[in-house]
């Protein structure tokens, strides 16, 4: 509000008001009556202000709307409810901009006018809501003296009216009133007290109302209305407490009532009570609130229920956890010192007989320890981090206390029923304290380890015990844990063996000491390898166990290499040489060793670059400077490691090279540039030598289980290095690209050649080099159009896309040069190639749309004197449309597909006349005899219907439908279903009447069928919803497409239920997708699927459930007479009635009987179309089903032949 502008001049707020009013004025022609009504009233008021020759100031609007509200209400009657609601809406809008002095001086008169809508019983919700907003602004404008005044008309009286409205049963009114109360309490007038003068009024009103409702609830527990009213009051209390306005002397009474509500069985009441508690805790965020919060905590602990109180204990524990979490945010140090008092009280509930209670106690303890000790408090004292020695000692004392409580109290017999929960609490505590848990928790670790190790006692909570040990490994380190619980794998030290620790170590070791693994764990491998070699039977159980232990020890190596603390000293030349030798000697060790080497680099690089900056404790124990030194050390030995990896890569089969290549790339990233350039030159030399040696050989597709040729191996290494080599080596890369991309008889080399461009484009320096040589690259790409192998197509398209992104405006001739290839690629069988072709077409369109000059003389096949043309989107569509004149149907079809994609992307940019011309041209192909062309044209029509403006489609609808309906009777290629889907779209867009008017007369039955099928599906869905509820249909899995265009083209929002029997293609698919098998009821006993007679209870038709009436009718069919059953024979038919005679029936039976054929096999005669067919009973002679057909209701059909794509590198 503007205190400095009492006359209502044009202040900044006035411009904001004018902006809001202008939006309302613009709705004068709105189709919505409420918006139009607002604009009309505003226009009338502004005309009145102009007639009186006043300026349109906030004061003028305020006076006009206030007098208009007074006219709408007379003698406690609302004369015009719509006008009153509209006027109140404008008052709510104008009040915040009205000068504060005016609202203070005329408070009594204004309040008298605003009070009328609030006191009328028949006032509508909209009127009351807006009036509340105006009253809120009026009360916010009052100063401290106004609030302190007493009288019949005062701000306090108005505030009480707001509080009464806060209990209104209407949700929107109640919410608006509660928000107004919250805002008023959050903005107290200037006074010595930080809280609002009206805060005690709000607290008293809320508590009184809540107490009365609670008494009513006790007498009427099943009254849902009372429950709702209690929740409404609790919402108001949450609003009040969240503003930090709840009086201190009312806290105990509030906590008492809230805890009483918490023990009710109504989960909504309990949830609302917790919300009020949460508001109370969150409101106290200032340091001055520490004493107040302490009093709240004391009140909560004074209200501690019995440990076996199943109603209140769980709720009380949840409140305690939330309270301490909020207290830690307010004053962490005070919260930490209070933990030794709080934890014993909460832990006493672990002795409860109720599982719910001691489970809640465990969760409460976990929450307290996790939230009450800030991570910052775990640091060592330092002047930089703000941790003093007093805080460090306080935390240390708390850790010692928690350890003693767990070890001496919770692990006693008294709490044995909650052993599982206590172990979970121990796990959470160790994970929270991390390295600070050492050495206090070593005793707890020893006890838990002994419980897990002693397998004779059958300890039931081994998993929880292992979780404690796992937390200790990740927090305190493996060397600390193994000093307490040694592995004893060889049995030399006596004591139990703990081989079960190996998997736990593997999953939890990180930031450990590599030297410990190298000297304490790895030597065990020699012992077990000797045992395996000494064994006579390599397949014995013992040998397999020993081999498993060896494998588990090797699986630890990568995790000890995950950011080790002693990398520079532990990973020395001797250890690296040993691992290198093992990679050549034992193929099975290549995976863990490569993984370990890769993690050495990745973990240190990530840590150096700030991956764990938020982990303050980690930063203190292992500074980032150490990680930087580790990376520098690894870069000095990266050349030797790369040499080893290159050799391993050379002798690894194609199917198992991935992990080696990943490790190579990791070390390429940190290798010094000069060393990398030298290595690259060596690899290039070996590639040239290998290619010379293989020049006379013919390239053959190699198996994935064979080692690839040397040239392929070297090319893989060059592709991997392309991203990392210095700029000085880029010339050699482009030379290799030019030399290998034209090898039409060697598709593997071609594919890798294109990947050189893709890899270089991943870096900025690589992009600059591509831009530098882009002319040569364009030339090579144009010349190799016909030489590209199909298997290298996707790699080529990816390279073209990257080149197009960097294409300068002077080289736009490249677009028409390769356009035909890209258009043809839209029909490629490879999904990735299709997706890339769509992206390339769109990128071409964007480049052409940016403008420039196309040098047509440089386009292959054009004369040198062809004039240049200007680049534009229209010109690009002209180029693409040229493919429609091709003689090859495949090219025409691909062109239509390309146009469809481009129309879908650029529909908003193209001129209307161009869109019309393209649409009319492509629609002509709907009458083409080629199915391939027609299929693409139908796809274009679907895109046209979805994307183009409605007016454009509507004006040509008759002609479009006459051409389209030609294919509505064609079943092959799903033409019929495609046409039907398009009709569905048209009906949704233009309505049934318009489509019926434009569709040919002979095809109108299809529209009628669509209407019928939709109505039938709707009825079916409604029936299913009533019978089964809203069940999720799992059979409609989410479809994925390579582009938004393909989604629009091939996706259909026609549900399965909407497909009618008229649509045979879709109906066939529907039958194939549904199972028609049912289990017949067998009385009270469930069906035993292992029983031999189980098949007799499986039916292919849905079994009928007999009603009482059905059973009665069955009884009447059989009547007894003199104790004998009498059967009705009136409706029975003679099975032989249709036969000419008994002889004919006999002959038919003989014809259908089996006879002995060759090799004594039974043969059955099957007659169809008066022809005799004989088949053996052998499975091999069963009739071959037609493609796509199914036999009866069986789901068995001829399997389609699958083509497996070649695996990429």
TrEMBL record:
Domain RRP12 HEAT: 352-651
Gene3D superfamilies referenced in this protein's UniProt entry, alphabetically: Leucine-rich Repeat Variant (1.25.10.10)
The RRP12 N-terminal HEAT domain, residue ranges: 29-243
Pfam families for this protein: HEAT_RRP12_N, RRP12_HEAT
Segments of skewed composition (Basic and acidic residues): 1107-1120
Presence of the UniProt keyword Zinc-finger in the record: no
Domain of life: Eukaryota
Keyword line: Nucleus
Chain spans, region Disordered: 1012-1038, 1100-1141, 1157-1209
Compositionally biased tracts (Basic residues): 1186-1209
GO CC terms in record: nucleus
Location within or outside the cell: Nucleus
Family to which this protein belongs: Belongs to the RRP12 family.
Name of this chain's protein: Ribosome export protein, putative
Species the sequence originates in: Candida dubliniensis (strain CD36 / ATCC MYA-646 / CBS 7987 / NCPF 3949 / NRRL Y-17841) (Yeast)
């Amino acid at each position: 509000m503007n205190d400095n502008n009492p006359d209502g001049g044009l202040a900044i707020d006035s411009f904001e008001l004018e902006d809001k009013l202008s939006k309302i004025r613009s709705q004068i022609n709105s189709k919505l009556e409420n918006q139009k009504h607002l604009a009309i009233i505003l226009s009338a008021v502004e005309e009145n202000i102009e007639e009186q020759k006043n300026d349109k100031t906030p004061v003028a609007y305020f006076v006009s709307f206030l007098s208009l509200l007074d006219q709408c209400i007379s003698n406690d009657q609302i004369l015009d409810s719509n006008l009153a609601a509209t006027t109140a809406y404008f008052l709510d809008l104008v009040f915040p901009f009205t000068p504060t002095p005016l609202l203070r001086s005329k408070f009594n008169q204004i309040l008298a006018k605003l009070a009328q809508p609030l006191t009328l019983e028949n006032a509508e919700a909209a009127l009351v809501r807006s009036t509340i907003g105006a009253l809120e602004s009026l009360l916010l404008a009052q100063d401290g003296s106004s609030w302190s005044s007493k009288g019949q008309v005062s701000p306090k009286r108005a505030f009480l009216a707001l509080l009464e409205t806060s209990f209104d049963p209407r949700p929107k009114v109640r919410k608006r009133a509660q928000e107004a109360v919250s805002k008023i309490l959050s903005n107290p007038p200037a006074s010595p007290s930080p809280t609002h003068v009206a805060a005690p009024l709000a607290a008293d009103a809320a508590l009184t109302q809540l107490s009365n409702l609670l008494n009513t609830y006790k007498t009427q527990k099943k009254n849902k209305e009372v429950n709702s009213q209690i929740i409404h009051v609790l919402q108001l209390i949450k609003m009040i407490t969240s503003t930090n306005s709840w009086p201190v002397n009312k806290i105990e009474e509030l906590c008492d009532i809230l805890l009483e509500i918490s023990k009710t069985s109504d989960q909504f009441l309990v949830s609302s009570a917790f919300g009020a508690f949460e508001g109370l805790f969150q409101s106290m965020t200032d340091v001055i609130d520490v004493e107040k919060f302490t009093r709240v905590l004391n009140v909560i602990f004074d209200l501690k229920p019995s440990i076996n109180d199943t109603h209140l204990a769980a709720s009380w524990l949840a409140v305690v956890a939330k309270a301490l979490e909020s207290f830690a945010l307010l004053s962490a140090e005070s919260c930490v010192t209070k933990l030794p008092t709080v934890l014993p009280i909460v832990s006493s509930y672990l002795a409860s007989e109720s599982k719910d209670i001691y489970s809640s106690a465990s969760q409460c303890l976990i929450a307290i320890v996790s939230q009450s000790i800030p991570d910052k408090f775990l640091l060592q004292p330092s002047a930089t981090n703000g941790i003093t020695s007093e805080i460090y000692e306080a935390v240390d004392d708390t850790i010692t206390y928690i350890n003693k409580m767990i070890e001496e109290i919770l692990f006693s017999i008294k709490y044995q029923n909650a052993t599982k929960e206590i172990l979970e609490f121990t796990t959470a505590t160790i994970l929270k304290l991390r390295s600070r848990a050492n050495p206090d928790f070593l005793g707890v670790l020893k006890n838990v380890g002994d419980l897990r190790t002693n397998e004779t006692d059958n300890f039931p909570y081994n998993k929880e015990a292992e979780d404690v040990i796992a937390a200790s490994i990740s927090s305190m380190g493996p060397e600390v844990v193994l000093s307490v619980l040694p592995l004893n794998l060889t049995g030399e030290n006596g004591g139990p063996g703990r081989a079960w620790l190996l998997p736990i170590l593997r999953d939890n070791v990180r930031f450990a000491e590599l030297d410990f693994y190298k000297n304490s764990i790895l030597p065990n491998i020699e012992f077990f390898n000797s045992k395996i070699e000494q064994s006579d039977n390599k397949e014995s159980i013992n040998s397999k166990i020993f081999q498993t232990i060896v494998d588990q020890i090797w699986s630890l190596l990568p995790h000890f290499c995950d950011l080790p603390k002693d990398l520079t000293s532990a990973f020395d030349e001797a250890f690296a040489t040993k691992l290198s030798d093992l990679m050549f000697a034992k193929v099975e060790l290549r995976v863990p060793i490569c993984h370990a080497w890769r993690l050495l680099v990745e973990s240190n690089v990530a840590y150096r670059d700030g991956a764990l900056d938020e982990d303050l404790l980690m930063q203190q124990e292992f500074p980032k400077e150490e990680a930087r030194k580790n990376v520098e050390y690894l870069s000095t030995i990266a050349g030797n490691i790369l040499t080893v990896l290159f050799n391993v890569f050379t002798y690894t089969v194609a199917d198992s090279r991935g992990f080696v290549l990943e490790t190579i790339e990791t070390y390429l990233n940190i290798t010094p540039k000069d060393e990398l350039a030298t290595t690259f030159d060596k690899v290039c030399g070996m590639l040239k030598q290998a290619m010379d040696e293989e020049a006379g050989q013919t390239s053959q597709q190699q198996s994935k289980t064979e080692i690839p040729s040397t040239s392929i191996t070297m090319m893989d290494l060059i592709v991997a290095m392309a991203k990392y080599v210095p700029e000085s080596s880029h010339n050699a890369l482009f030379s290799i690209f030019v030399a290998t991309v034209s090898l039409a008889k060697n598709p593997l080399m071609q594919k890798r050649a294109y990947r050189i461009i893709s890899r270089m484009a991943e870096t900025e320096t690589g992009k600059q080099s591509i831009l530098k040589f882009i002319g040569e690259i364009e030339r090579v790409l144009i010349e190799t159009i016909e030489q590209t192998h199909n298997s290298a197509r996707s790699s080529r398209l990816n390279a073209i896309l990257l080149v197009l992104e960097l294409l300068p405006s002077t080289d736009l001739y490249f677009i028409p040069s390769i356009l035909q290839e890209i258009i043809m690629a839209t029909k490629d069988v490879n999904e990735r190639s299709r997706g890339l072709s769509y992206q390339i077409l769109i990128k071409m369109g964007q480049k052409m749309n940016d403008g420039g000059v196309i040098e047509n003389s440089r386009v292959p096949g054009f004369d040198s004197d062809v004039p240049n043309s200007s680049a534009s989107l229209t010109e690009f569509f002209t180029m693409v449309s040229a493919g429609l004149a091709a003689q090859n149907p495949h090219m025409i079809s691909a062109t239509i597909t390309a146009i469809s994609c481009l129309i879908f992307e650029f529909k908003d940019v193209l001129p209307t006349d161009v869109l019309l011309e393209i649409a009319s041209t492509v629609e002509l192909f709907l009458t083409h005899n080629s199915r391939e062309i027609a299929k693409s044209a139908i796809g274009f029509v679907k895109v046209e219907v979805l994307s183009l403006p409605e007016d454009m489609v509507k004006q040509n609808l008759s002609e479009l439908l006459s051409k389209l309906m030609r294919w509505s009777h064609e079943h092959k290629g799903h033409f019929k279903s495609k046409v039907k889907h398009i009709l569905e779209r048209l009906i949704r867009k233009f309505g049934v009447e318009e489509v019926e008017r434009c569709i040919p007369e002979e095809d109108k039955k299809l529209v009628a069928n669509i209407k019928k099928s939709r109505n039938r599906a709707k009825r079916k869905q409604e029936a299913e919803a009533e019978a089964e509820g809203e069940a999720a249909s799992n059979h409609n899995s989410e479809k994925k497409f390579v582009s938004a265009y393909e989604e629009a083209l091939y996706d259909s929002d026609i549900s399965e239920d909407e497909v009618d029997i008229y649509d045979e293609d879709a109906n066939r698919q529907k039958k194939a997708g549904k199972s028609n098998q049912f289990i017949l009821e067998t009385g009270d006993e469930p069906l035993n699927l292992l029983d031999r007679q189980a098949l007799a209870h499986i039916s292919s038709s849905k079994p009928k459930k007999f009603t009482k009436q059905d059973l009665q009718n069955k009884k009447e069919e059989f009547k007894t007479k003199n104790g004998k059953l009498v059967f009705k024979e009136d409706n029975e038919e003679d099975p032989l009635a249709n036969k000419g005679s008994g002889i004919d029936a006999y002959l038919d039976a003989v014809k259908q009987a089996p006879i002995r054929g060759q090799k004594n096999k039974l043969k059955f005669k099957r007659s169809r179309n008066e022809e005799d067919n004989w088949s053996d009973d052998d499975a091999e002679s069963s009739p071959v089903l037609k493609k796509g057909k199914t036999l009866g209701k069986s789901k068995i059909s001829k399997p389609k032949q699958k083509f497996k794509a070649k695996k990429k590198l």
